[in-house]
Fold each of these.
Amino acid sequence: MSEKNREGKRNARDKMKEARAAEEAKARRNKKLAVGGVVAVVIAAAVVVGVVVQNQRSKPETPTAAPAGTVGDKNLVIPVGAANAPSTLTVYEDPRCPACGSFERTFSPTVDQLEDAGKIVVNYHIVSFIDRSLGGSGSKYGANALGCAQDAGHFRDYHDVLYRNQPEETEDSFGSKQTLIDLAKQVPGLDTPEFQACVNDNEFGGWVSAVQQDFDKSSYKSTPTVLLNGEAVYPKKGDEQISPENLVKWVDAANQGKELGTPGSNGQSPAPSSTAAESNNPPSP
Amino acid sequence: MASQQADRGRVGGLRRAVDGTAAEWFGLAVRLGLAVVWGWAGLAKVSDPAEAAQAVRAYEILPESLVKPVGWGLPFLELALALLLALGLGTRIVAVVSAVLLLVFIAGISSAWTRGISIDCGCFGGGGAVDESQTKYLQEILRDSGFLLLSAWLVYRPRTRLSMDAWLAA
């Protein structure tokens, strides 16, 4: 065998080897590209499907149904007191929020009196975000039950009953619809089959979500948020701490020289004669 | 001379530890661990779209028009990563995406922290404003950094046991 021939054979073998290696490399590259493509498609499809599905699942910011007598451009607000009262107290509260409970138990006799005297109208925004951080559904179901009570014309009384019977924040008693219905028995005329159905069917669930979404977009971050004629008064107005006496003083100052409103009964029981704070009913075991 | 040999032995041992069968089983554990993290994080954000949007809004970084698309799409991105990691398909690319996402999260939490706003990161559901005393920025960043290490390992050594990648390569 000549040198030349041997060299030629080796060259051919090398070339074949190289060609095979190149082919394998190409196949590996193609495989990698295909896997990368599949990964990209899976991720893109998941995100697109997610956005579409969540868009369909999310409740509208303008509720399709709201409790009777609610006001505001989306009917998200429950007003209590004379519509033509000279001052407006705006209150954002979550049924499960302990600070709201303590605010209500201290201030509700005073607030009720100011309403009945035609001095203020209170605009309640019943928000429901504590369920998000603590889990459960007491904020949402409680807010819905308050909507049902508003629909039946008993918001103020039921609202006071709920806060007097508020459980510990971490306890989700209001997540039980039966508890909400049982508490309605303390409000004369509220515990009707309509009210029970409204609570059990979570009838104003969409409205509750819309109220919360409105709060989400607001600049307020905690509850209770309390504004007197748009100015924050909780826990302080300027340097002055809020107290029942100070609240009356501030309202009277704001109302000076203005005509008082004409409160209707709105199916509510009259305000207590004393401004003494109410005690918390021990939650039933 | 002797020390050189010892060095070589140590390097060889290290290489065996990083490339060997044990490392591929370790990689499997890392991959499945990260899959559980993404799956849990994604599922926790799916149930309430308004809550997911608010968790994003609370960072006060994105414009309102992007709050909902991000809040709604992000959990499904996380679920897709969980699925791909569980299958072991495209492990290195998925690990890179995981790492990038975690870096974005860490940057977002750090930004909220430095701007002095009080939020829950909403990493595993929840989110939104919280009382100043209830912020957990350091824990949240450390936790995400831990997940970042898992992702980094898979970028470095994407070959793992019981993966579709291995099955496709065979």
Note: Chain A has a mean pLDDT of 92.
Amino acid sequence: MKELWTLFWTFAKMGVMTFGGGMAMLPILQREVVENKHWATEEELTDYYAIGQCTPGIIAVNTATFIGQKFKGIPGGIVATLGVVFPSLVIITILAGLINNFADLAWVQNAFAGIQVCVCVLIFNATVKLLKKSVVDKPTAVIFAAVLICSVVMDLSPVWFILVAAVLGILLKNWEVKRA
Amino acid sequence: MIYLRLFYEFFKTGLFAIGGGMATLPFLHDMGEATGWFTQAQLMNMLAVSESTPGPIGINMATYVGYTIAGIPGGIIATLGEVTPSIIVILIIAALLRSFRENRYVDRAFYGLRPASTGLIGAACVSVVLEVLTNITVTAPESGIINRFQLGEGGLAQLISWPGLVLAVILLALTNWVKPTKGLHPIVFIGLSAVVGVVFRFAGV
């Protein structure tokens, strides 16, 4: 029980320190999990992180579940994840309440109108960064462009694009292997 | 029962969003349009706050969106909904780690999944740019699946929001090309944009 508490608080601490997304978490994980607590080796952490990036969901959560599971089985995985999300729940709930109270003020509206422009740029930058990693040849470029255009023009759930792309990936690679 | 629906919607997001926090954006975008729970402008504000506060962006957004829809329980349920698929998937993978990494079908599926996930984020980017920087609105059709693109009041002359475009170009340069600023945390640029927004009355009030 005491170990589960340690797990919870360690990951809650990491949740607070992860400022800006899963990528920012890796150096902190290395220090806490590998060097201080010895819950996983450097190699295991790299593996977890790599898998956490390509499985569904938030990278930070995926990595936390992996490490918790390694240390204390299924309860460990669940507790580590709850730890990572705990600070977000508290901080965002307080902030959201505050912001909703001030949303009618003119300067708050103006500030958010400015911020929205910044969000456009941040999303654009995120897309470009991901583009470099995910578009590696002609077929992946075609998948990217097709999904982008279809998703803008059509009112379809993103779920369908993800499912079709997974099947397409398997078919394309199979064909490539057969042809070679 | 709003809480069940909320859990289901976020479970779906957690299950299909691949590649981290930003990958949940297209799903949240779609959720807002399909349910009417929040507007796209609200979503953008929530994204900005999520980027500027501690914690993983994806989790912050889930909590914020959930809170907006159904208060404190909403925030908790949305977040739990979003992480549940992760926990299940990771626990399964952990049990068969070696075979997962070496499974060629998994590898091949991800060859297609990665660019598709990026394409969805790119599409969300296009919608957001249209909404914030232009006078074009995209609405879901009443029947069929092709969206409607409409030019707002003022016609072509009012097509682009110029102050916004200038700020966007400056931010693009600062975040990508200007050496001393390009490595800075997004919160710096969000703060800067808030100040610019207030000084130049971006909302027009």
Note: Residues 73 and 129 of chain B are 32 Å apart (CA to CA).
